[in-house]
DNA sequence: CTGAAAGCGCTTACAG
DNA sequence: CTGAAAGCGCTTACAG
């Protein structure tokens, strides 16, 4: 009566997956011998080994990770926690982690937390309940994080990416956010800008944003310039017209805006355009991250390019060492600060000599 | 001699993870009872249950998925295969899958194939070796795929995302790519465009690209217009200046370009800008996908917006039904075609009346 | 060089 | 309602 039947030629796929026992029977040896062959612990050319190899091939046997894992307390699986895939900068590190992990025979269990510190804890719980051997994390903040303390206490190996902890015992792969931000300010200053503002993602969701602000603030002060109050915007916001209008309508508006991420920079440029300004003629804009799409855009975004894929790869490398080391020797590896690159792009230019006045009538200066 | 010692206050974290046996001993019951309590099979208020619950809490016990998995042949883990995270359109579906999976207590093992059909097979092997309960895939092509045949043969439950197979027995969550592409052509035609070109990602890496071209071709013919030969570009290319120059330097160059993805559209707009053209004044451009960053850009990209996160969620929903069903009843679910939206944006306009001549001198028309 | 046996942490008929 | 026991697929001392 069933409307669709499989073609009669194809028999029911009741083929049960072969186990080590099936293989042993087929090869006429014990399961121990099969296990040794699979793990490379058997003599390479003995007749028994030959027969086992043949049986494995004929049966298409793959050892179950569950059985193995139960015995060895290892799953060859790591957990990866990131704020969001919506930002391609994280996509880059995920690809790096994933590629390195695959080469090493590890699986990657992925979770996104949507920049919500509350979700971080539950994501971690989920991953831990899947018996991951280690973790690679990008969290809201690395310093004084109860979450990380907890992980330390449990003795779970982990490595941070993007986070830049001040406590050096926490392993992290990142760039020098402070130095990079300083360099942005210096570039802008070199172009003649004195009033440089900063737009940043929410500090409570991103210690990187805060670090970049620190670098901005420091460089401004050193250069004898007055840092402007930071404009914090929520992550994921695509329309920043009102924020940009507000900052440009101030009495002494900035001539350049440093954004803590490329995504914010794109939104700022979009907002400026909508307000009738042209970038960089009327306003210089700099981002941070170096996501691919900003290289294709015209004008090409000026930004700090992070080696995201490499960051992911190196993070897995560190984690692998950690997982291989005895649990009481976590000092086997040290934090990694990777080089970044300031891509000059086309969104910065000299100080505008005059530009559309965005102040609303009632705010216009006397005269 | 070790330079850094843990503070003496904190004892060595030798705390061994509690097992079902530990809990049983603590509560003075058998492991069977603990198992029943954990799985909600014990009487809710019996004294034994109470004691077990207390012991679980005191010990911080979480059942090992390895032990459970060995018994039940389930890992509560699914595999997710996508071409690349570099394209945010996939990031969206990944987030959807991941969120739905987490809510259902499933872990998601992620792998990217870099649009390489060869990597698809090895990625699948890796995932299967991790004993995933099911798979969600975006592959190069769904029709006549040896990979999918193999999966069918093995009886592994899987659901496709983005792929739009013509064979209806393959479960997929996608949009109607052909219809959407037609709609783009109709929009352009309504604006007066007659010479509409198409730039597409490599057909061999993406059956979606081919389907969108099919829709384009069909709509052109129906409208009495002449379809131009498709310009295939490799995935991941950010500089399309030469390709765009070539197509616009042709004798009867297109006045509008339909791109099979947003990322390609962004690159095409960048190339046009570099060539001294203004979009949409000199050239109309339409994308496909609706990735977030194109909403922030000015001019805002005209594109087909796919509900990517929802696609991911629905895919997991289908897979969950499949995994719950008996292996011989795969007909429990049917393919899902989700609605898309044509976002008008700002990159399309009327046919240009005149624009910079991109033909090189030797190609200039006589006179 | 190879095998018999114990055991990793669970679940689940089977008794009682 | 609860427990004793078998067994899921492996690995690994321990003998031989």
Notes on the protein architecture:
The structure is a homodimer of 367-residue chains. With 367 residues, the first copy, chain A, is α/β, with parallel strands linked by helices. Chain A has helices at 20-27, 31-38, 47-59, 65-72, 88-103, 117-129, 146-154, 177-190, 207-222, 241-248, 262-274, 293-296, 308-324, and strands at 77-82, 107-112, 134-137, 158-161, 172-174, 196-201, 231-233, 256-259, 284-286, 303-305, 336-337, 341-343. Residues 1-14 and 361-367 of chain A have low confidence and may be disordered. Chains A and B meet through helix 4, helix 5, strand 2, helix 6 and helix 11 of A and helix 4, helix 5, strand 2, helix 6 and helix 11 of B. Chain A binds a DNA duplex (16 and 16 nucleotides) through residues 19-21, 29-33, 35-36, 38-39, 42-43, 46, 48, 63-73.
**With helices defined by DSSP (H or I, 4 residues minimum), what is the helix count of chain A?**
13
Query: Sheet with the most strands of chain A?
Result: 6 strands, parallel
Measure the end-to-end span of chain A.
90 Å
Stretches of chain A where pLDDT is under 50 for at least 5 consecutive residues are 1-14, 361-367
Mean pLDDT over all positions of chain A: 87
The H-and-E topology of chain A, N to C, reads as HHHHEHEHEHEEHEHEHEHEHEHEE
Indicate the overall shape of chain A.
elongated
Largest interface, Cβ cutoff 8 Å: A-B, 65 and 62 residues
Could you state the oligomeric state of the chains shown? Answer: homodimer
Strands in their spatial order, largest beta sheet of chain A: 2-1-3-4-5-11
Beta percentage of chain A is 5-15%
**Helicity of chain A, in percent?**
40-55%
């Amino acid at each position: 009566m069933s409307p669709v039947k499989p073609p009669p030629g194809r028999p029911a796929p009741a083929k049960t997956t072969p186990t080590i026992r099936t293989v042993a029977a087929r090869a006429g040896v014990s399961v121990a011998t099969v296990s040794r062959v699979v793990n490379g612990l058997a003599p390479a050319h003995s007749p028994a080994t030959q027969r086992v190899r043949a049986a494995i091939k004929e049966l298409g046997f793959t050892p179950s990770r569950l059985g193995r894992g139960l015995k060895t307390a290892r799953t060859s699986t790591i957990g990866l926690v990131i704020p969001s895939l919506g930002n391609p900068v994280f996509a880059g590190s995920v690809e790096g982690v994933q590629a390195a992990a695959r080469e090493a025979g590890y699986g990657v269990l992925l979770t996104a937390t949507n920049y919500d510190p509350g979700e971080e804890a539950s994501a971690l719980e989920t991953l831990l309940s899947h018996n991951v051997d280690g973790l690679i994390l990008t969290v809201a903040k690395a310093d004084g994080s109860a979450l990380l303390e907890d992980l330390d206490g449990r003795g779970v190996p982990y490595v941070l990416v993007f986070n830049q902890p001040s406590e050096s015992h926490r392993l992290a792969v990142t760039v020098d956010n402070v130095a990079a931000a300083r360099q942005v300010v210096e570039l802008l200053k070199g172009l003649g800008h004195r009033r440089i503002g900063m737009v940043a993602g929410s500090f409570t969701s991103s210690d990187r944003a805060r670090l970049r602000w620190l670098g901005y603030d420091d460089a401004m002060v050193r250069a004898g310039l007055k840092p402007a109050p930071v404009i914090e915007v929520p992550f994921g916001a695509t329309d920043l017209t009102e924020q940009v209008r507000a900052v440009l309508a101030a009495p002494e508006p900035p001539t350049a805006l440093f954004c803590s991420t490329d995504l914010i920079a794109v939104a700022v440029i979009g907002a400026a355009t909508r307000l009738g300004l042209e970038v960089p003629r009327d306003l210089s804009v700099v981002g941070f991250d170096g996501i691919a799409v900003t290289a294709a855009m015209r004008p090409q975004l000026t930004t700090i390019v992070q080696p995201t894929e490499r960051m992911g790869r190196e993070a897995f490398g560190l984690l692998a060492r950690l997982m291989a080391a005895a649990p009481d020797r976590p000092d086997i590896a040290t934090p990694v600060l990777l080089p970044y690159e300031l891509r000059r792009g086309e969104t910065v230019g000299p100080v505008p000599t005059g530009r559309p006045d965005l102040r609303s009538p009632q705010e216009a200066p006397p005269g």
